Amino acid sequence: MKIGIIGPGALGCLFASKLFLSSDTRNEILLIDHNPDRATMLNDQGICYTLDSVQQRIPIPISSNPSETGSLDILFCCVKSHDLAQSLSFAAPLLSPSTLLVFLQNGISHLIYDLQKSISAIPVFATSSEGATLVAPGHINHAGTGTTHFGFLSPQLPPANKRLAELTDTLNRAGINSSVSEDIRTRIWAKLFINVGINALTAIYNRTNGQLLTSCAVRSKIKLLVKEAEQIAIASGISIKEDPVKATFNVCKRTAKNVSSMLQDVRNCRPTEIHAINEAICTLGRKFGIPTPANDDVSSQVRSIEQEYSLQKHNKK
Question: Residue 312: helix, strand or coil by DSSP?
Answer without folding.
Answer: helix
